[in-house]
């Protein structure tokens, strides 16, 4: 025991007093409860450093949920040598406890016990002498059930600064809480406006109900020693047993290696949320949201944000388009920060949230409704808001009753990924190649056919039917996933693209004959519809990069830009070749006409009518053979096809492996 106490005293140097209580809970168990009830004469002085009960064999650990008891003080500022009242009471009225122990400690290192307690007039309190000082701790004098206890504590005359009253409270043999804190109390010089103990009106008698006015307590942030950081992360203690835990990447709770993780513990009407970021990811915030559809938007969110050297908690209400987490929409008093720390870049906070919160007329009822947990973290902040969750985001796969402890897995993004992959294959791949065939290869592979059609038309039709099929399938998939209309630039332009794509083959069924007067109008309409759909399809893919649910990297824009440059450059080269073909064919027809005129009509001039007829005959003969530069066109088509496949493969991989940063990090 002596050696352990020395270890605890050394651990107290350089750590926050709240962290000290948790460290002591893992090191020592001292005795002051019997297996069935509290020690009738209170805690022994051997537990002054640990404040931990000792049960048979030391096998019973403290509760890690929010304590249903509170420690209140009658004043937040007191002068040196003055007295303040300290109340230990149950938060729900009528809740009783048996044993307790209370100390006042310096909020800053070395966290020594300070001040003295006064004997209780009704004899219900036993005073203890800890750290060679008199009456500086208090415990129970009997183990009977009690709804509250009030104590009188006198501040030291030689101390200036903040103190925190730290309590251990036992409700039963197996249920006790260690390190229940009060609000900080500032000790000042008596001539600097100290607030004395209120004397107006009678003091409450033992057993009377006391009001609970305790504000949320935020302990000081601290940097733990490296030895503490090297130990197993206690956050995961109780996951799947006493609390719901969920984080990303999916399955990280089992390996205790989450990039960001949240836990929910429910005790009665107390809903406690713990949130923690991972080590080394430079998180600017970590947050957990309650969502009824596992999608970003209209979610009640709890944010933990380091500000000015300490962790601050905010409540917010999210929107997906544009992405935002609005704090002004949510009553900030609907949640209370119980504990927080920032250790080696790891953000941690513990928050108690009200069972019912109303935001913009919408009720979040944690007792009666089921919710998906949505964990997110990011590396940037906005003014009065958090930034984009570029580190990661993952919703749980199912909505749960928060009070039912269970194993959680991440929501599948399969339909979204298939939607993106199909659209990229259609509008980057098959459409681009189909347009090339129709525009530049009508005079290539002349005389060769597939299924009774010229090669260019057979390939064009195959590629465009594939585009149509992939587009319709992708649109159905995203509707199945979303189950509702979501309007933003991506969805609106995408809908226009789908409509144009759907109409193209229908219009082709009513194509006039080659010699019909309406054929030119059809050709222009078909050309315009196809090219407009292609352009809008690519623009839609650009807008998808910014969608939160897609989780695509911002640098994907540059890959799309590179594709556009290559596609335009290939069109330019083919167009130049088409012009050269036209000039050469025209020149060859003219030369043939002159040769025929010299050989056949040397005795007279050919009439204009005969000249035109001969020209048409020459052009017709040229159309029966491949246009010039056929080898160049075929070679360029092969190179373009390979490059196009590479673009499609890379873009599809970015979609199906999103977020790609997490995938690369795991590999």
Structure, explained:
Helix content is 34%, strand content 23%. It is an alpha+beta fold. Strands 2, 4, 6, 7, 9, 10 and 11 form a seven-stranded mixed sheet that branches. α9 (556-600) packs across α10. The radius of gyration is 38 Å and the shape is elongated. Mean pLDDT is 80; it is low at 1-38, 192-231, 600-606 and 618-622.
Which descriptors apply to this entry?
34% helix; 667 residues; elongated; alpha+beta; Four Helix Bundle (Hemerythrin (Met), subunit A); 28 strands; 6-stranded antiparallel beta sheet; disordered N terminus; single chain; iron; Immunoglobulin-like
List low-pLDDT spans.
1-38, 192-231, 600-606, 618-622
Mean pLDDT: 80
- Total domains: 3
Question: Largest sheet, described in full?
Answer: 7 strands, mixed
Q: Please state the oligomeric state of the protein chains shown.
A: single chain
Q: What fraction, in percent, of the residue positions are helical?
A: 25-40%
Please give the radius of gyration in angstroms.
38 Å
CATH topology of the largest domain: Four Helix Bundle (Hemerythrin (Met), subunit A)
Structural class: alpha+beta
**CATH structural architecture of the largest domain:** Up-down Bundle
What's the total helix number?
Answer: 12
| Overall morphology | elongated
What's this model, at a glance?
It contains 12 helices and 28 strands. With 667 residues, it is of the alpha+beta class.
């Amino acid at each position: 025991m002596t050696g352990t106490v020395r270890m605890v005293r050394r651990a107290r140097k350089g750590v926050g007093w709240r962290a000290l209580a948790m460290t002591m809970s893992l090191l020592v168990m001292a005795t002051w409860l019997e297996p069935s009830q509290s020690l009738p004469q209170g805690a022994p002085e051997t537990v002054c450093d640990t404040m931990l009960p000792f049960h048979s064999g030391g096998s019973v650990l403290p509760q890690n949920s929010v304590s249903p008891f509170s420690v209140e003080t009658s004043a937040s500022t007191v002068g040196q040598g003055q007295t303040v009242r300290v109340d230990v009471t149950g938060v729900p009225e009528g809740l009783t406890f048996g044993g307790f122990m209370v100390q006042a400690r310096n909020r800053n290192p070395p966290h020594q016990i300070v001040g003295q307690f006064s004997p209780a007039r009704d004899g219900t309190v036993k005073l203890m002498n800890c750290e060679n000082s008199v009456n500086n701790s208090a415990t129970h004098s009997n183990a009977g059930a009690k709804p509250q206890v009030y104590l009188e504590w006198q501040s030291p005359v030689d101390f200036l600064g903040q103190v925190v009253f730290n309590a251990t409270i036992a409700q039963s043999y197996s249920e006790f809480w260690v390190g229940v804190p009060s609000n900080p109390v500032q000790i000042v010089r008596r001539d600097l406006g100290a607030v004395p103990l209120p004397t107006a009106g009678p003091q409450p008698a033992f057993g009377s109900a006391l009001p609970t006015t305790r504000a949320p307590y935020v302990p000081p942030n601290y940097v733990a020693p490296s030895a503490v950081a090297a130990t197993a992360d206690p956050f995961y203690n109780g996951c799947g047993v006493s609390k719901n835990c969920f984080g990303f990447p999916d399955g990280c709770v089992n390996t205790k290696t989450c990039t960001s993780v949240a836990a929910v513990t429910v005790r009665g009407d107390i809903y406690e949320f713990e949130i923690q970021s991972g080590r080394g990811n430079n998180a600017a915030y970590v947050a957990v949201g309650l969502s009824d559809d596992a999608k970003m938007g209209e979610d009640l969110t709890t944010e933990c944000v380091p500000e000015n050297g300490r962790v601050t908690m905010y409540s917010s209400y999210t929107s997906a388009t544009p992405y935002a987490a609005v704090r002004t929409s949510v009553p900030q008093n609907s949640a209370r920060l119980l504990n927080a720390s920032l250790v080696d870049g790891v953000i941690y906070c513990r928050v108690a949230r009200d069972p019912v919160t109303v935001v913009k007329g919408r009720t979040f009822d944690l007792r009666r409704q089921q919710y998906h947990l949505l964990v997110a973290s990011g590396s940037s902040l906005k003014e009065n808001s958090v930034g984009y969750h570029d580190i990661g985001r993952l919703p749980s796969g199912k909505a749960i009753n928060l009070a039912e402890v269970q194993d959680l897995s991440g929501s599948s993004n399969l339909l979204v990924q298939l939607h993106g992959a199909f659209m990229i294959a259609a509008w980057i791949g098959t459409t681009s190649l189909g347009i090339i065939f129709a525009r530049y290869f009508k005079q290539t592979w002349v005389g060769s056919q597939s299924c009774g059609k010229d090669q260019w038309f057979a390939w064009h039709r195959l590629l465009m039917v594939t585009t149509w099929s992939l587009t319709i399938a992708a649109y159905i998939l995203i509707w199945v996933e979303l189950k509702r209309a979501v309007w933003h630039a991506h969805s609106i332009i995408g809908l226009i693209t789908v409509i144009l794509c759907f109409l193209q083959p229908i219009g082709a069924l009513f194509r006039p004959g080659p010699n019909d007067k309406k054929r030119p109008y059809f050709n222009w309409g078909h050309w315009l519809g196809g090219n407009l759909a292609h352009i809008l399809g690519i623009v839609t893919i650009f807008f998808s990069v910014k969608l939160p649910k897609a989780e695509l990297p911002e640098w994907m824009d540059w890959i799309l830009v590179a594709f556009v440059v290559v596609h335009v450059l290939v069109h330019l080269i083919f167009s130049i070749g088409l012009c050269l073909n036209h000039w050469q064919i025209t020149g060859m027809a003219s030369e043939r006409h002159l040769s025929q005129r010299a050989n056949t009509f040397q005795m007279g001039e050919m009439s204009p009518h005969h000249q035109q007829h001969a020209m048409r005959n020459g052009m017709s003969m040229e159309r029966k053979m491949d246009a010039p530069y056929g080898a160049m066109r075929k070679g360029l088509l092969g190179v373009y096809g390979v490059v196009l496949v590479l673009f499609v493969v890379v873009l599809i991989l970015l979609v199906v492996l999103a977020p790609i940063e997490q995938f690369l990090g795991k590999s």
